Amino acid sequence: MKLSPGVLSLLIANIAMFIVTYMVPGQKEFMLRWFALYFPQNDQFQVWQFVTNMFMHGGPTHIFFNMFALVSFGSILEFRWGIRRFLTFYFIAGIGASLIYTLVNVLKFSSIQSGFLALGFSSETILALLKTGSATDALTEKLGLETLREFYTLYHVSAVGASGAIYGVLVAFGILYPNAKLSLIFFPVPVAAKYFIPGLLCLDLFSGFTGFSLFGGGIAHFAHIGGAIIGFLMMLVWRKNHQRTERITVSDY
Q1: pTM to 2 decimals?
Q2: Which of 73, 126, 132, 226 is surrounded by the fewest CB atoms within 10 Å?
Q3: Largest pairwise CA distance in the chain
Q4: Phi and psi at residue 244, in whole multiples of 5°?
Q5: Does residue 183 sit in helix, strand or coil?
Q6: Contact by Cβ (8 Å): 234, 168
Q7: 3-class SS at 176?
Q8: Per the CATH hierarchy, to which homologous superfamily does domain 5-252 belong?
Q9: Would you call 134 helix, strand, or coil by DSSP?
Q10: Which residues have C-beta within 8 Å of that of residue 155, sequence separation ≥ 6?
Q11: 192: Cβ–Cβ under 8 A, 6 or more apart, which residues?
């Protein structure tokens, strides 16, 4: 497959960030501290992290699958749209995914915090929990260990990855090429994009609300959903405005 210039640039940038983070001695903590996406109330949060987290990844498998999807679907869109329109779409989807993911986490955090306060626990007790990670017996008894763990995790754990932008790309591809046949490595049966992509989104919604994931833990499911929503909305707007596109077929690539 021929790589389009925008996709090639994104590929190089993501690989470069990965190499600096994990292969240059002493850089991992610095890179994650400044470029991963932290919870807004965390002292390590910076506004540019809504963009930079898109170039950070959690490990070889994470970056491989994201870059594989970027090359597979992004090049097709870029050859159809052109580099400017494709990169605009990619970054809006990725930033939108980060914002939606953060909003969901803020709502979860606020809900748990309200529960603390409603039960009569002070702001100082909440702050102590966030700083130390240890809870009093009274907190554990009234709120449960899982709730306390979620509260602490929301505040401290950062998010990385291009998945939000990639999901936006997937949605755009599915709209433009609904009958293209897609398959996963662990599910090698080809399925039309108009069924495959909604099915993938349903899995993310299920995992996001239940916490159960077929793909393992530590996945920002609502970032995936956020990227898909933004991608879908952009496609609606662009179609409504009759943006000019060229006609190509998936088989050309």
Answers
A1: 0.85
A2: 132
A3: 64
A4: -75, 130
A5: strand
A6: yes
A7: helix
A8: Rhomboid-like (1.20.1540.10)
A9: coil
A10: 39, 41, 42, 109, 130
A11: 178, 179, 180, 181, 182
Write the CB contacts of 173 (distance below 8 Å, at least 6 apart in sequence). 73, 76, 77, 180, 193, 197
φ, ψ (nearest 5 deg) of residue 159: -115, 140
Q: Domain extents for the chain?
A: 5-252
Cα–Cα distance measured from residue 226 to residue 54, given in angstroms and rounded to the nearest whole number: 13
The pLDDT profile of the chain, 253 residues, written as one tens digit per residue, is 678 999 999 999 999 999 999 999 999 999 999 999 999 999 999 999 999 999 999 999 999 989 999 998 999 999 999 999 999 999 999 999 999 999 999 998 898 888 888 877 777 777 777 887 776 666 777 777 778 888 888 898 899 999 999 999 999 999 998 888 776 655 567 788 887 888 877 877 777 666 655 555 567 777 888 899 999 999 998 887 754 544 444 444 3
Measured distance CA(16)–CA(248) in Å, rounded: 31
